[in-house]
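cache lookup: miss for this entity combination. No prior model stored, computing from scratch. Input as submitted by user K.M.:
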Amino acid sequence: MELKQVSLNASMLYFENSISEEVLNRVLNAFHTMRNIEGIIDITPSYTSLLVEYDTSLLTHTKLKERIKKGLQETSSNITTRQKHIKIPTDYSKGEDIESVAKYHNLSIEEIIDLHSSTTYRVYAIGFMVGFAYLGRLSPKLFTPRLSTPRAKVPKGAVAIADHQTAIYPQQSAGGWNIIGHTDFDDSSSFSIGDSVEFVRI
Amino acid sequence: MGLKVLQSGLFTTIQDEGRKGVAHLGHCNSGALDLYAYKWCQNLLVNTQANALEVMVGLKLEVTKPTIIAITGADLGLEINGDYKEPWQSYTIKAGDILHFSKRITGQRAYLAVKGGFDVPHYLGSFSTTIKEGFGDKLKRGDILPYQETTGTPHARVKQEYIPNYDAPLTLHVMLGYQHNLFSENEKEKFFNSAYETTLQSDRMGYRLSGEEILAKSENLISEGIAFGAIQIPQDGQPIILLNERQTIGGYSKMGTVIAEDCYALAQRGPGCKVRFAPYTIG
């Protein structure tokens, strides 16, 4: 764990440089610890790090370092109790790319659906747009590269996969992920880092 | 009633100091790009918790009830009923007056606030228009900006020494120190010894510069939070200074972070301005 100064009012807390559920839990724990530190304005957690912006009249990089250290010692046994569990009803029957994904992996469409809906995912990061949650990790049998040419329009509610992750497009946008299903789930803005997410076939 | 939009101008939005405490949900800060000018605008009116128009050239407004306004930031040739008015001052306006930001004289973005602020919706604790997040929209002809009627506040102006010169050469001071080891000494030297130019691809998200290409050692970084002023170096080697409507996370290499005051000054530069980088040292 290392706190690096990023600007006069921002620092970055890094955990180790690899993505895992264990690191995610440490990020989540740090996130909840930081929310109780006076003077912090914004926290942006992501896979292995947290960007912290603070009010310089209340905090400095050095003070922040002390508070985080102290806070983490006090809460180290209290990991991941505040995560939500979210179920996403998913219609896999009209996934634009599900056939090509099945072909790519030499699996049947049924097998793709089973693999995707039998894993419980965690929110590793939120970004790209509001409510776009990067969910990991896919079954290694489903690791799929992004489309070589991104779509100009991915519809709202598209359930898609790329590399080792899956996601739901909270709004229509351009995008290069492989669409394997669709959902009416409309509460993406409630996703928070560390939440667990399950896709339920309908 | 309040101010009625007769001409929307190039791009006018309502801004304040930005959205706080929601970055973890994927919301950008948004807010006034030139926070220095914005704060002076509110100071002139002794406003707290208010908002202002972030104006680019061309905006024309009709006043329907009296108030006091303040204008700071760019000099966009504001005319009240055809008479030019200098920025960085407050002015009394009355029903029937026409306000027109007629031409760009210096800077890019002017701030126009009214005493007490505009009575407009706020979203997640901020008045800042953020179109991509569905929070408000740019002003359109026929829009009405309501406010409480006021009279009698004394005229105020910002002292000359506090008014920036947006035509002066700009040096962006950079805090190194968290990813700069992704760049070789040679690349860093090139970065700090070259002149860059602002380009047309500059907006509330960020300013794309053009000049010497800078190569980063690694391209596949784990996505992480992006700070205000971060200098992102994408694969084409051309730096982008990320501002108020940047994405919250990203995986490009970053040379460092431009200090906030210099970002405010950058936001007043139009395309084709020369900028240089210099290391910033604390203390």
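stored under new cache key. The first strand of chain A starts at residue 2 and ends at 7.
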